[in-house]
Amino acid sequence: MIADLAVTTPVGGILFACLSLSNVRQHIVRGFPASTHIGLQVGVGLFIADLGLRSGRLVVTDIDGDIAFGNLRSPVVVVIFLSLLLIAALVATRVRGAMLLSIMAVTVAGLFIQTAPGHFMTVPPARVVALPHIPTAYFIAFDTTVFFP
């Protein structure tokens, strides 16, 4: 299973890169009808919206497993809801970078909003610039014994 994944993932990535660098991918994409393009755009948009609403706790899963509205008494939920209203207002007034400005406003506001005593909505980083953490247990950890017994 792992060996199959170790082979198919790089092969798929290389194949996709080759298709993207050539015009073949554009011809394949143009072969689909417009309704399929729109359906994919809507599906991806709804998925991203669901992720955002759940991470902002505006949408939660209740005890029965159904979708429910978040707790409006929570400061996090109120700030996220106000940020959505801010995005709508900025987009309606045709402000360029409306979403980015709203994200920046919520980030700055989160520095001052306590979610629990001593805990803030936005936690500033320990360092301004840092290299990402690379898990050494997984970094280039291929089992090549399958290929070279």
Task: Determine Rg (CA atoms, Å).
Answer: 22 Å
Strand order of the largest sheet: 1-2
Which regions have little confidence, pLDDT < 50, spanning 5+ residues? none
Strand content: 5-15%
Largest sheet: 2 strands, antiparallel
Oligomer: single chain
Estimate the helix proportion, in percent: 40-55%
The helix/strand series, from N terminus to C terminus, equals: HHHEEHHEE
Mean pLDDT: 86
- CA distance, first residue to last residue: 17 Å
In DSSP terms, counting alpha (H) and pi (I) runs of 4 or more, how many helices? 5
The total beta strand count reads 4
Name the structural class. mainly alpha
Structure, explained:
It is a single chain. The chain is mainly alpha-helical. The protein is built from 5 helices and 4 strands. The strands form 2 sheets. It has a two-stranded antiparallel ribbon with strand order 1-2. Helix 4 packs antiparallel against helix 5. It is extended, with a radius of gyration of 22 Å. The protein starts with a helix and ends in a 29-residue tail after the last strand. The model has no long low-confidence stretch (mean pLDDT 86).
Topology readout:
Blueprint: H1 2-21, H2 24-30, H3 34-55, E1 59-61, E2 67-69, H4 75-92, H5 98-110, E3 114-116, E4 119-120
Antiparallel strand pairs: 1-2, 3-4
Short description, anyone?
By secondary structure, the protein is mainly α. It is 54% helix and 7% strand.
